[in-house]
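Page 47, continued from p. 46.
Same chain as before, 250 aa.
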Amino acid sequence: MSNKIQKIKPYERLARYYDQLMDYIDYATWIREVEDLADQHDAGDKWLDISCGTGSMAIQLARNGKTVTAVDLSQDMVEMAQAKAAEAGLSIDLSVGDMLTFHSTSKYDVIINLHDGLNYLLEDVNTQSFIDNSHDLLEPNGLLIFDVVTPLLCQTHFRGYREILADDEGGYERYTTYDPVTQLAESRFTLNTDQENMVQVESHIQRAYGLKSVESLCLKSQFSWWQILDDETLDAATEKSERLLVLMKK
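Result:
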């Protein structure tokens, strides 16, 4: 008998597995590299982490003395982040928020959106809205720093990728596909439930951004200066870069 499928929103259940999915990342080193880049522009200490996930980067920033506000679209991810911050004894302003519409009476010295958050924006108009909104949220000379995965990374690592995790809660099975024509990658996470012959499915769709697409977004923006780096080497990005790191200065 085939299983019945219940579709659920992204990170409704995957939030509890997110840190396991990301356990290969050295967040302390990554944040230190980002801080060093910001220091080159004399950036201040008031940071906004937008699409913060479970708060791993926000926590590192707070440990390093930054005043941190962090938001994510997923209530489940925010609750995980709040629990981690409380356990670490750190004061971080954490809340649910949409990267396209988040507003604040405060202005920030640096805004980060890292580890593929922007790839969830599938249309240029939405990406441009995010960039415009970030510009409004920044202090004069403030920095926006974000990264995106490229078509090369998706072609190399995502096509037909399968992963299975088993645990006492049922675990998940992940299958990722990539369409080079649409440049869309879809990761389907199938999770078991307590109900017989019933599974839940989270579908995560991301768009790959090539170098030329990112250059076009930067040129259309209100920012006075921008730079696109290879996320691995921190040299100028090329068509062979698998991930792009973008700095934009107000």
